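tool=predict chain=A
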Amino acid sequence: MLILLVLCLSLAFLFKNEGIVSSVTSPIRSVVARVDSVVSAPFRSLDSLNEDIHDLFDTYSENKKLKKKVAELENQSEVIDSLKSENDQYSVFCYRKGYC
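tool=predict ok
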């Protein structure tokens, strides 16, 4: 009971003298902010590393899709070249026979 009375009187004194409260809490806040910054730094680094790894996997996935698309386009290019050659042959044949 005595402890509760002392605690209440102490709080009443502190709230009555706000200047004392701010002079006590200001350095405490500063220390807590610095400790928070130091403690949170590794977690921020891990979060950044996690994002970088996620981006890397996204890049690999996109690269795989693009390689597949390039292979398809190269195949289409070969087909187009073959059809152009065949078309040229038919044009020569048509010209020789007098159809054109």
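The first helix runs from residue 2 to 16. The chain is about 95% helix and 0% strand.
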